[in-house]
Amino acid sequence: METVLSGIRSTGNLHIGNYFGALRNFIRMQRENNCYFFIADYHSLTTHPNPEDLKGSARQILVEYLAAGLDPDQCTLYLQSDVPEVLELYLFLNMNAYLGELERCTSFKDKVRQQPENVNAGLLTYPTLMAADILIHRADKVPVGKDQEQHLEMTRTFANRFNRMYKVDYFKEPQAYNFGENLVKIPGLDGSLKMGKSEGNAIYLRDEPAVIRKKVMRAKTDQGPTQENQEKSQEIQNLFTIMKQVSAPETYAYFDEAYNKCTIRYGDLKKQLAEDIVSCCEPIRERILELSQNEKRLDEVMDAGAEKARANARKTIRDVREIIGFRN
Ligand code: TRP
Questions:
Q1: 9 lines ligand 1 (CB under 6 A)
Q2: Which of 70, 116, 171, 277 sees the fewest Cβ atoms within 10 Å?
Q3: Same domain flag for 150 and 266
Q4: Are 266 and 213 members of one domain?
Q5: Residue nearest to atom 3 of ligand 1 (CA)
Q6: Could you tell me if residue 201 is inside a domain?
Q7: Helix (H) or strand (E) holding 28
């Protein structure tokens, strides 16, 4: 069985773009693989959050991932900061990571530009911490977006360098996992190609039905088709793309045909779409509310995840210390 690992950036609520994109694939994968999913709260320190925010956002994410369907009995779900072993590996990797290569990393250069007042060493060594996250569990596959591919490449470099330095064949090269056809990209309701928090066009899993309805009814549309089988404009295509995910195939076919025959009424399309998004999100929202109240359950999940992740991490650290020449 392959080991799959993914870090979850610890900011922001989940929106339906996240859900129908990567998250649904995680939920699928947890059944067939040895999955490690963790909330990257050490990484979030680069932005200097205050203690309440740090704690709050980690919990928030945990709640939403659980509510959406990550199952702690099927995968190892944990907080990065509950596995301090990762920091020992981070230190070892930092000893063989060179200033030049860290400075050349695209994400570092972006941060220097975005926040020149806070270019800390944690930002510089973000890729070695990420490499430690991955190598501590000796993951085979890491589902990552385009923006993380360079970090994964650096992880392979650090893994190989360690092997060469100590003349061992200990770390294997983690590969990017591409969801391929399974990766659904949910567009925005404003006619743009991407739904996102920073784009300000997102429907959140925790949005109340009335909020969802309002957002959908406000979605951009066009003048309507004037000829049969006319190609759809971007804004209309976007509504259909979302509908494909949330509605019954017959519903989709019905509106598609209405569009092609120029009999469609966008108001009806939106009403239907809104109801189907609500039906999709409502059970998740209920679980979010329920879990948010259930501190005990959250603590149990975090404790169990930490224990499983640490057991595996300890083994790696033991081996690595031995290889380097430290006492165990
Ligand atoms: N850097 C990742 C992001 O911004 C989050 C992350 C941290 C991660 N450690 C990881 C992803 C390890 C995959 C593997 O999204």
A1: yes
A2: 116
A3: no
A4: yes
A5: 9
A6: no
A7: helix 24-32
Q: Is 261 a catalytic residue?
A: no
Q: Is 130 close to ligand 1, i.e. is its CB under 6 Å away?
A: yes
The verdict on 108 and 256 lying in the same domain is: no
Measured from the CB, is residue 143 less than 6 Å from ligand 1?
Answer: no
Buried b (16+ CB within 10 A) or exposed e, 307-326: ebbbebbeebbeebeebeee
Let me know if residue 193 belongs to a domain.
no
Start-to-end C-alpha separation, the chain: 29
11, 57 contact by CB (below 8 A)? yes
Task: Please indicate, yes or no, whether residues 38 and 138 belong to a single structural domain of this protein.
Answer: yes
Q: According to the model, what pLDDT value does residue 198 have? A: 84
pLDDT-derived band at 263, boundaries 50, 70, 90: very high
Any domain includes 45 = yes
Domain carrying residue 271 = 209-289
Identity of residue 321: R
CATH number for the domain that contains residue 148: 3.40.50.620
Q: Which of 203, 47, 70 is nearest to 123 (CA)?
A: 47
Alpha helices in 42-181 (DSSP H): 51-68, 85-95, 99-104, 106-114, 121-124, 126-135, 149-166
Residues 88 and 230 in one domain: no
Q: Respond yes or no: is residue 111 known to be catalytic.
A: yes
- Ligand 1 contact via 243 beta carbon (within 6 Å): no
In a shared domain, residues 40 and 118: yes
Q: How far is the CA of 40 from the centre of ligand 1 (A)?
A: 7
270 is catalytic: no
- The alpha carbon torsion through 129, 133, 138, 144 (nearest 10 deg) reads -100
DSSP character string of 115-150: -GGG--HHHHTHHHHHHHHHHTTT-SEEE--GGGHH
The tokens describing 228, both together, are 């049969």
- Give per-residue pLDDT as tens, 97-145: 999 999 999 999 999 999 999 999 999 999 999 999 999 999 999 998 8
pLDDT score of 178 = 86
